[in-house]
Design brief:
By secondary structure, the chain is an alpha+beta fold. The protein has helices spanning 3-16, 21-42, 46-59, 64-76, 80-92, 112-123, 181-184, and strands at 132-136, 144-150, 155-160, 165-169, 175-180, 188-195, 200-206, 222-228, 233-239, 249-254, 260-264, 269-274, 279-285, 291-296, 302-307, 311-316, 322-324, 336-342, 345-350, 357-363, 370-377, 389-392, 395-399, 423-428. Helix 2 packs antiparallel against helix 3 (46-59) and helix 5 packs parallel to helix 6 (112-123). The longest helix is centred in the N-terminal third of the chain and has 22 residues, at 21-42.
């Protein structure tokens, strides 16, 4: 894809999720700077191109694509040292790009430093981890998002966005439909969580155009469905009232009391369902842009949320104070989807970078800072499009190939032969 198209993607990504005041202001400023940079690139005004990119990067620190573009802009201007510095930072993130084929680096491509960076970035392509496939589902076009595990019945629960249903897989590999849109009015199924003690399945569901039988009148509607695992019947549907705003319930988590907390990817809100009250309420709003995963700390005094375009926040449950977690300059937290707390670390599925990967983030003793990043799994064979997962003992299981890329530019799903079997991959944590 040509450079200006990459920049256009950045503009769209930064624009779609602008929701809260502070985040909206910064993202809006970055959008305008990137648009200006795009225009300057097309007109070959490379000094202005670089200036706009660097201003945008100040608003979006550690943004890999902006860092890579700044490297290219410097190379176009013959600033070899600056270009190499930016590329070293990009390579240090563990990410990849087709550096050798990128014409923006023509003026410095023969230097020893550039040739060494090509090798460094190529090493980032090497597979990492010992993940193994534990489940393959026969329905290829499910578009899977949520994953839960019932330890009592030793059974996986998988949510399908496309087919608007929940599929189970038992320990013998037997696949069964648990429920469907025809039965309960489910929309696309996103996050799933099982309350094993109370035998309840919680389901985050939202109406989006990629699901079967999409009704435009239902767009932006979202709800949480509560199921009895014993009877497989719907107990209650907790609907978010239609308010004319964009909503998408992407993930949820539960505490030991059975209360549920839900992230809204399109609004800057986190919602709560108190098991005692039995109603859906706004828990807290904040400086969020694109909320994704959510996970409690071990003592349940705080929970962590991933923001796809900003990083990771922690929220004190008692005070509702919101803290954005700082991280080393060598770490990028862009594009994190699901997150999971494990022994004072955060496991995360980072599908918004290239290569997509499963990572482990080490935390400070007070859980307020990220100290480092370790790649657990990265492989084209295993990670065409990882989404959400579940911790089972000392193992992490995750959905490895949601296959969101199998829609065309206008949202039509591609033929079935373009799909692979939806896959659950297991990686050991010890």
């Amino acid at each position: 894809m040509k450079k200006f198209l990459y920049l256009l993607v950045l503009v769209l990504v930064l624009g779609v999720f602008a929701s809260s005041t502070m985040a909206q202001e910064q993202i809006q400023q970055a959008r305008e700077l990137i648009k200006s940079a795009q225009q300057c690139y097309q007109e070959k005004k490379y000094s202005e191109y670089l200036a706009n990119l660097e201003k945008a990067l100040k608003l979006r620190p550690n943004h890999p694509e902006l860092i890579y573009k700044c490297a290219g802009a410097n190379a176009l201007l013959g600033n070899k040292k600056e270009a190499i510095n930016y590329l070293n930072k990009f390579a240090g993130f563990g990410l990849i790009a087709n550096l050798a084929e990128d014409g923006d680096f023509a003026l410095i491509k023969d230097s020893n430093e550039f040739q060494a960076l090509i090798k460094d970035i190529e090493r980032n392509r090497l597979p990492k981890g010992q993940g193994k496939v534990v489940v393959k589902l026969p329905e290829k076009d499910l578009i899977t998002e949520g994953l839960a595990y019932d330890p009592q019945e030793e059974k996986f629960y998988i949510g399908s966005v496309r087919k608007r249903k929940i599929v189970t897989v038992d320990k013998n590999g037997q696949t069964t439909d648990f429920t469907s849109s025809q039965q309960d009015g489910l929309w696309g199924v996103f996050g799933l969580k099982i309350d094993a003690k109370r035998r309840i399945l919680w389901v985050a569901s939202s109406a989006i155009a990629e699901m079967n039988n999409f009704d435009k009148k239902e767009e932006n509607l979202a709800a949480v469905f509560q199921y009895d695992l014993k009877t497989k019947k719907l107990i209650k549907k907790y609907s978010l009232p239609s308010d004319g705003k964009r909503h998408l319930f992407g993930d949820l988590t539960i505490n030991s009391k059975g209360d549920v907390f839900i992230t809204d990817s399109f609004s800057p809100n986190i919602y709560q369902i108190s098991l005692e009250k039995g109603m859906l309420e706004n828990f807290v709003s904040g400086p969020f842009a694109s909320l994704q995963g959510i996970a409690f700390s071990g003592d349940e005094k705080q929970f962590f949320i991933s923001d796809y375009s900003q990083g990771i926040f922690s929220i004190d449950v008692a005070t509702k104070n919101i803290t954005k977690l700082n991280s080393p300059d060598s770490v990028t937290l862009l594009g994190i989807d699901g997150i999971y707390f494990y022994q004072n670390t955060l496991l995360a599925i980072q599908n918004g970078v290239n290569p997509q990967r499963v990572i482990k983030l080490s935390l400070s003793d007070n859980l307020k800072e990220i100290n480092g990043l370790e790649v657990l799994e990265v492989s084209k064979a295993l990670l065409p499009d990882p989404t959400l997962g579940v911790i089972i003992g000392n193992e992490f299981c995750f959905l490895a190939n949601a296959q969101w890329n199998n829609f065309d530019k206008v949202g039509n799903i591609l033929p079935l032969d373009k799909f692979t079997e939806p896959t659950i991959v297991q990686t050991k944590l010890k």
